[in-house]
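Contributing new complexes? Match this layout with acetoacetyl-coenzyme A.
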Amino acid sequence: MAHDRAVGIHDLSFATTEFVLAHTVLAEHNGTDIDKYHHGIGQRSMSVPAADEDIVTMAATAAAPIVERHGSDGIRTVLFATESSIDQAKSAGIYVHTLLGLHSATRVVELKQACYGATAALQFAIGLVRRDPAQRVLVIAADVSKYELDSPGEATQGAAAVAMLVGADPALVRIEEPSGVFTADVMDFWRPNYREAALVDGQESIGAYLLAVQGSWKDYTEQGGRALDDFAAFCYHQPFTKMAYKAHRQLLNHCGHGVDEDRVSRDLALTTAYNNVIGNSYTASVYLALAALLDQADDLTDRAIGFLSYGSGSVAEFFAGTAVPGYRDHLRTKAHREAIDRRTPVDHARYRGLHEFSFPADGGDHRTPAETTGPFRLAALRDHKRVYETR
Ligand code: CAA
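Output block (do not edit by hand):
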């Protein structure tokens, strides 16, 4: 169904962690050829959370500038997408709601389907705005990606939060219909409730992702979507940035285009700049790709951007957005660069210590070490409750 009124992303802001580990440090520790990291998987560094950071502190840090710029009037819904949930019942979004001082007349809910969750949130938000164009929805994607030490996945860890304000007449990107969707029941990556680190079958996960690219594109075209040549760029979920290249080659082949590497590079190069220094931020990653594209492209006004969101397990969605006239006046390029540049590099021993840090689960009173210099921190655990504070 065609709609007259544009709905989409009105503002976008991201945050990442206090610390960063360079892949050169990891390579030196485990004897890996650095070219495998820099070129084989396309990663240069990974964001590492401090002991007093988590998805809530990153999410609040990402969303605070949005609330500061637009106020909270009109925000009646907060959708928090994550697969690194901090509670089995309560939405992480409620903590963010408090930290940002949002109105009590708000619905808040958490969504999960691996790295796809934020795209579900975005689409649900669009539906809510279509029902009442006066409303705005705060969509937050926040994740900490954690694999076992010394496992193949270790080099693809990372952490970040992206906050997006979704509304009518958006200032950045209009989201179009239709969407192409795809679900297949695969065990490529999962995290049972009793584990902190994910379990993954790396090669199977790459295959499952590529199948999902084909499946969601097929549905997208059957639903009457745009032709491949319409798109100026493609934002893929980037568990590691080379995955976007694998996926795009798969799409070009599937569409019978053959693989022209200049074209692949033109379609993707600007989308990897944040993910290759942040690492996998799971459900935030595809929207970090969008941030990198918008922040760096000369001018995408009225150009179509393709989005491929993939969440292991698996669900995928292909959809299109269009950069709206004047979008460059609303970008947060400087703040985004600062979020990356402000991180403090850690050595390997410190990184391992942070990786292995976990809170006692005894319900006692445990203060967290004060490590982060960000605006929000996880100050303590008390009576099984997380206690956050604002600086
Ligand atoms: N110089 C240059 N390139 C090198 C190299 C060197 N010295 N050594 C190896 N490489 C290349 C390899 O050829 C390979 O490239 P291709 O895939 O293009 O052939 C690449 O570096 C990686 O090498 P390996 O496959 O040998 O690496 P690995 O066995 O250590 O595992 C991985 C790689 C499977 C991605 C692993 O990091 C992993 O399990 N990651 C977590 C799972 C994941 O990210 N899956 C992605 C799809 S699932 C998803 O998207 C959801 C999600 O967020 C998890």
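Reviewers usually confirm one structural detail per submission. For this one: The chain has one domain: 7-390.
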